[in-house]
User: What shape does this take?
Amino acid sequence: MTTFKLIQTPNGVIGLYLPTLMGKLFVPLREIIRLEGQRNYTLFVLNNGKPILVAKTLGFFEELLPVNFVRVSRGSVINLSYVIPFNGGNIRLKDGYEIPVSRRRIKHLEAVQQVALCV
Assistant: This one.
């Protein structure tokens, strides 16, 4: 059984080891654009365009990842570092992907973005 936890490398890079067909792959958090839930699987979409499918739920990773990863709908978690300024309805990411934001999560997302802008 694979244990998932955030790892910091000796040079200070924080990331996760994700299981792939070729073995475990270290993925720095800064390279993750978004996560998409697909039933009992999660698809990691990286900034190099490479997708990685992992046999864990989106909710599992939502709890594991730091606060700059925000759940915006039932099936999506985004990295706020890749968001083009948000103004309700849909979010556009720097890779051109657009995600509809759940009505119940809009206010939370706006608040998180305001805090991120102040820091």
